[in-house]
Amino acid sequence: MAKDKPQKYSKEAFLNAAKNNNERLLLNVLLRDNQSYTKEDVEKTVKTWKNKEVK
């Protein structure tokens, strides 16, 4: 049996589901308009950004 593909959501959906203003601001900066993301995509993007070395 084929595994279902993960559901993708818009940037706006993630912004609406953000737990607080700080999370909403971060997602607004990191995610692109008119693109769909899985929950895993967003978690990976945020984790990568948080672990990025400051120059």
Give me the side-by-side strand order of the main sheet: 1-2
Number of strands: 2
Strand fraction: 5-15%
Distance between the termini: 48 Å
SS element count, helices: 3
Largest sheet: 2 strands, antiparallel
Q: Would you identify the regions where 5 or more consecutive residues have pLDDT less than 50?
A: none
Give the topology string: H per helix, E per strand.
EHHEH
Coarse morphology: globular
Mean pLDDT over the residues: 93
Helix content: 40-55%
Radius of gyration, in angstroms, nearest whole number? 13 Å
- What structural class results from the helix and strand content? mainly alpha
Task: Give keywords.
55 residues, two-stranded antiparallel sheet
What does this structure look like?
The protein is mainly alpha-helical and 55 residues long. Helix content is 55%, strand content 7%. It has a two-stranded antiparallel ribbon. The longest helix is centred in the last third of the chain and has 13 residues, at 39-51. It is globular.
Question: What topology emerges from the helices and strands here?
Answer:
Layout (H helix, E strand, L loop, with lengths): L8 E2 H7 L3 H10 L5 E2 L1 H13 L4
Antiparallel strand pairs: 1-2
